Each structure stands twice: as C-alpha cells, then as structure tokens.
Model the fold of this input.
Amino acid sequence: MEEQRAWWKECVVYQIYPRSFQDSNGDGIGDLNGIRSRLDYLKDLGIDVIWLSPVYQSPGDDNGYDISDYKAVMDVFGTMEDLDRLLAEIHEKGMKLVMDLVVNHTSDEHAWFVKSRRSPDNPYRDYYIWKAPVSGGPPNNWASRFRGPAWEYDEGTGMYYLHIYSRKQPDLNWENPRVRQEIYDMMAWWGDKGIDGFRMDVISMLSKDQRFPDGVLKEGNPYGDGLPYYANGPRIHEFLQEMNREVLSRFDWMSVGEGVGVGTREAVQYAGYESHELNMMFHFEHVELNPGPFGKWNDNPV
Done:
C-alpha cells in the first residue's frame, strides 16, 4: 500500500502530568495556567503536540483517571476558561493539544453511577455492569488490577458491580448503546472546542465476555486472571469502528489507544490502515518480557 502521510505521524508528543508540572498560584499543585506559562519553553524544546493527563473533575482516587464529570475541570487545576485559554495559546504557537480519554470506567461519584446504584430499575442501572451474587459471593473470581476482587458488593441493592481497577472506578457497560452514544456526544463536545485528539486509556478493555467466566488462578493470588475475558473482547473492534464513524472521522485528530493485553499482532487490528479504528496503539510486550512473581513489577534482567 502506498504510504499515507498525516500530521500526527510527523510530530513530537510530550506528555504533561499537570499536578507536578508547574504551579502558578503557590498552592504546591501544578495547574493549567502553569502549563500556559511554559508554552514558549515547550515550543523551544521542539514539541509539536501536548498530551495532557486528565484534568477533568475527579475525586482523585486514581490520579484523575476516575472522572466524575467529563465536561468540567478539577478545581485544583483551574477552570474551563483556563483550559480554553491554554488551548487557544497552544494553537497560536503552532502546537496541538491531545486530551486523555477515560471511558472504560468512571468515578463512583459520576452522576451516572450515583443514579445507577439507587435501584435495579433505575434508567441508569444498565450504564454499569451489575450482577447478582453467585453462591452468596461475587459473580466470578476476577482480580482487580489494583489487587483484591474486581467486584464490589452494594448493600443498597444487594448486587455487585464490576471494577477492573479501584472500587471507586466502576466499569461502564459498553453493551448499552445509550452509554456509547453519551460517550460519543461527549467526545464530539471536546472536538467542537477545538482539541486535536485523544489518548485513550485502557481502550482495549471496553468489550467484556458476556459469559463472565472465572479466570485461571495463578500462584500467590486468590483471585482469577480475568484478562482473557475483558481485554480484546468479542465486540471491541465493532465498538471502535462505531466510534470512528460517529466521532473520530469527523475531526482531523490524533487517536492513540493504550492497549492492555495487546501485542504487536493485535495492535495492527486496532491501528491498521483498513481497520477504521484508531491511528496508533501502545502496548506493553517490552515490559513483560521477563516477569517475576509480581508480573512486570520486578527487577529481573531481560
């Protein structure tokens, strides 16, 4: 196939974790105006694209990756007006801004989840993954990626909700078309603001195996490995192709997916020319070449 040139293939991208980058008001926490004060420095470094780690409203249980409002800015970082000014000045200096997108899960303080947990017949119940107890316990044996079980019991309704990460990060139910449309509408809202794309957190995990089978038990862990059932799931490419049709293709964006459980072969499916899904994927084979008892969290030499 003839090479297809695109602006995002020829850019230097620089990730900013806002909390530790530059404080503008003396409270010890980096913020949006702090970033704005350093744009000339970033330009001089040769940066073309700033990837901004999450600045959305969040309780901060997982460093901002637990979002309680996708259309608001976390108070410690500033205001939406500050973000608008930052975006405008980035563009004035000939650079671009890519936001972090977290749509596998939300915060348990997001309005959707607050409503979802009120009752089994609430209209938002099916926005998340709720299951009845099995034999008096969780629906399966999956481990959370943050240790412990991946299911949290809710006293109010007597059911469990799935959280592959923190118990304060309930997984969204991508099987529900209303959830998908809400997310596409939110992404388009940011696109209309003028951002230049998204880095998509754990995007390979949106589709879960609807059988929810037990995972294999590994030595030293009382909980099962659910990765084969929640990464690269049966509808993941369908969902991302829909996202591309509904939103991504409407904007001249950079789209980068974080691929948990994705290897080089799978990455081609997500980011191939003919896939009509994402521009790029990162995957983690290189940090999992020689795992120890705690997986990649070890000092074993390769």
About this structure: The longest strand covers residues 96-101. The two ends are 36 Å apart (CA to CA). The chain has a mean pLDDT of 95.
